[in-house]
Structures are given as C-alpha cells and as structure tokens.
Amino acid sequence: MIPDQNPIIAGGSAVRFANIGHFYSHVVMLLYPTVVLALEAEFGLPYGELLALALPGFMLFGLAALPAGWLGDRWSIPGMLAIYFIGTGAAVILTGFADTPFEIAIGLALIGLFASIYHPVGTSFVVRHAVNRARALGANGVYGTTGLALAALIAGTLTDAWGWRAAFFIPGGVCLLTGIAFVVMLPPASFPRGKAASRLDPGVTRRLAVRAFMVLGVTILCIGLIGQAIQVALPKVFAVRVTILGEAGLTGTAALVTGALLIAASGQFIGGILADRFPLKSVYITMYVLLAPLAVLAAGWTEAPLIAASAVIMLLVTTSLPAENCLVAKFCPAGWHATAYGAKFVLGLGIAALAVPMVGAIYDTTGSFTWFYVALGALGAIVVAVAVFLPGARATQAPPEAPQAAPAAGAAE
Fold first, then answer.
1. How many whole angstroms separate alpha carbon 65 and alpha carbon 343?
2. What does the pLDDT read at residue 385?
3. Which of 46, 142, 302, 370 has the most CB atoms around it within 10 Å of its CB?
4. CA-to-CA distance for 251 and 257, rounded, in angstroms?
5. SS3 at position 97
6. Three-state SS for 27?
7. Per-residue DSSP letter, 350
8. How far is the C-alpha of 117 from the C-alpha of 61, rounded, in Å?
9. CB-side exposure of 337: number of CA atoms within 13 Å?
10. Residues 6+ apart with CB under 8 A from 349
C-alpha cells in the first residue's frame, strides 16, 4: 500500500503527531540550560559544574538514537513513537521531583534516553511518506527548531512563576498526555506493515555511498557541536553580554533566546526550498562559508549585534539541515533509513554533546564567551573544508538506459 492510499496517513493525523513529537523532543532537552540559572543559588555550585549534570542526558539523546532507529526499521516505527511520547513525558515529570544534583543528573539522563527515539524514527517516517522529501523535511524541521526557540521561554516563564520544578512538571505532563492520545487515536497496529527497498538509488554506487558517509561523519559531528553549543550557551551568553535586559530576570533572558531561535526556525523551511531547487552539496557548503567568519566576528560583539549574530548563526545551521537529511537518505537504502538517521544522531547529538561541558569549561576558565565564538567559527571552517569532497550531482546521475538492439533479419518474433 502506497502512503497516499492509507487513510491514516492521507488524513494527516500521523504526520501531525510526528511533527509535534519533533517540537517536544527539543523542548524537553533544552529546559535545563535555562532552569540551571535558578539552581546556582539553590545548590551553591558554579554554572559549569551544574551544567555538566546535563551531559549524560545529551549524550544519550544522540547515542541511543542508533538502537532506536534499528528497532524502528526492524520492529515498528509507530510503536517506537508511542514509547517516545509516554516515556519522555514520564521522565520529565520524574526530574521535577529531584532533590539533589545527582537525582537531577539521573532524571536528565532518562529524558535523553527516551527523547533519543524521536529523531531516527520521526525523520524516517517523514522521508518514507513524503511526496516532496526536501520540503517535508523542512516543514518537520520547523517544528523542531520552534521547540528549540520556545524551550528557554517555557522554562524561564514557568520557573519565574511557580519555581523550577514546574518547568519540568507541566511540559512532561503535556508530552505524556499526547502519547496517550497518539495510542488511542492512531494505534501502532493500524499502520500497514511492509518491507522497504534495500537497494541504493540508481546512480549511487557503493563506493560513492561510502565516500559520502565518511565525509558526512565529519561534517555532522562539527555541525552538531555548533548547534548544541549555541543552544546550551545562549541563556548564559545573553545574561552576561546583553545589559539591556536590566532586571528582567530569567523571563527576559529566555525571551531573547526565544526570539533569536524563532528567527532560526524559518531556516528549516528555507532550507527545504533551497534543497529542492539547488544541488544539495552547494546548499550544504554555502551555509558554513557564511557562518565561519560571522562567528569569529561575533566573538567581540555585545548587545544587539551579538543577539543578531547568534540568531543568524543558528539560522544558517538550521537552513543546512534539510539538505543534510536529504544527503543521508540519498546515499542510504530506504529499508535502513531509520538506522542511518540513528547513526547520524549518534554523531550530531550524542558525541556532539561534548559541547555541553565545553561551554561550561570555556566560561569558567576565561570568564567570557570570546573563545566560544572563535571555536564555532573554526568548526564552520572545518565543515567547508571537508564537505567539498561530497559526491556532486553529476557523480550520482543514473546512467542512461542502453538502447535495445534491433532484431536481426529473420529472427523469430
């Protein structure tokens, strides 16, 4: 059964749940970088030490994506989505009950473990059922980036209004209830089962696929470090370098972070259009040709210029992502999409979670974020230098079909 013949998929309900799931996955993972600002006084620990409590969760968010993707390919993608919603919601609520730094670290680790399910499974779902792959990935990405943008505002507003525990209880409850609605409205068993193709696209040889994934392994890691570092650092960066906030508190800081990231949210939509119209490799590289010098310049900026530069840096990162996801799909057999995306997010979210202690260490050591922005620029330059080795459009064109020879005279018809 093809996707548009399936009433569940044709009605759009499953796609809406998948998009909402992307929004939740980023909200729950970025509650703590804002909440931590309220915990410095409560626990009497430095910013870097408290922020490091999130490292296990951020690493699991990426590392556990590979087994989650494998289970999605081999067992059930909708079944894994149900586990994602319910398990993540329960883990976020549990974190709200923590009384010690160790308990917070355990709660954040559980959040990362269950939230890791979304990216390989949700992205694979969109790729398998999209009519226009690039634009569908861009639209799905807008939900995720909007989650990135609103996470700080949600956490800051709830913390200022009802305390830091509310910043976990309320989002966790909403995610859990969404999971229950998903199971009731779209039972996983109601989705068609079928074996996806396991061959590479025409024109893509095994050699080109290996070359592409070797290059993408480096670029995905660097881009993951850039994205995670700036998402985690922005609340503290704006609190330190933007004096126009005055006495606005966490809500004011969070509002600036949200504004910067909401600008970035449009990047996924723009990136989807660009990836649909232009060569994927060109779109991918161009974003980091622009990012590298901008990040280095931003190292010395404060106030409005810094806010604008931070927003544009994230905009460039998000604009590159639809092209990146299309490149992964292009060089991977369809039957292994979820597993391939799982491997991608092991690098881009799991190993790249090393950006979390990096942010804290840079600030605690230097007392500023100057070298932080220089590091972002250096990572952008590495992406450009490596991505030029990606196979281009000409290398992956399918060979023309050989014309059939005319039958010899007197041959039997």
1. 7
2. 97
3. 142
4. 10
5. coil
6. helix
7. I
8. 8
9. 23
10. 58, 61, 62, 65, 116, 119, 224, 228
Amino acid at 225: L
CB 284 within 8 A of CB 323: yes
Q: How many whole angstroms separate alpha carbon 334 and alpha carbon 138?
A: 19
Q: How many CB atoms lie within 10 A of CB 69?
A: 30
3-state secondary structure of 384: helix
- The domain spans of the chain are 3-190+203-391
Q: What is d(CA 144, CA 92) in angstroms, rounded to the nearest whole number?
A: 18
3-state secondary structure of 135: helix
The C-alpha angle with vertex 296 and arms to 232 and 363, in degrees rounded to 5, equals 40
Of residues 121, 145, 123, the one with CA closest to residue 136: 123
Tell me which DSSP letter residue 403 carries.
P
CB 65, CB 342: distance < 8 Å? yes
Amino acid residing at 112: G
Least Cα distance to 254 among 163, 165, 158 occurs for 158
Q: Which residues contact 214 (CB under 8 A, 6 or more apart)?
A: none
pLDDT tens digits, 253-290: 888 888 888 888 888 889 989 998 999 999 999 999 99
Separation of alpha carbons 240 and 302, rounded Å:
9
Q: What tokens appear for 261 in the block?
A: 């990231």
- Token code pair at residue 24: 């939740």
> Distance between the two ends of the chain, CA-based, in angstroms?
37
309: its two tokens: 């530069």
Q: Which helix (H) or strand (E) holds 13?
A: helix 13-29
- Rounded Cα distance, 374 and 359, in Å: 12
Backbone φ and ψ for 367, nearest 5 degrees, come out as: 75, 10
| pLDDT, tens digit (0-9, with 9 covering 90-100), for 106-123 | 999 999 999 999 989 988
- Residue 296 has which token pair? 């280095």
Amino acid at 40: E
The Cα-based distances of 118 to 18, 26, 39, 194 in angstroms read 8, 10, 28, 21
Burial tier of 354 (Cβ tally within 10 Å: 0-12, 13-18, 19+): middle
Q: Give the pLDDT confidence of 164-179 residue by residue, as tens digits.
A: 999 999 999 999 999 9
| 0.85 exceeded by pTM | no
The residues near 400 (Cβ < 8 Å, ≥ 6 apart) are none
Tell me yes or no: is domain 3-190+203-391 CATH 1.20.1250.20.
Answer: yes
* C-alpha atoms less than 13 angstroms from C-alpha of 201 in its C-beta half-sphere: 18
Neighbours of 98 (CB within 10 A): 18
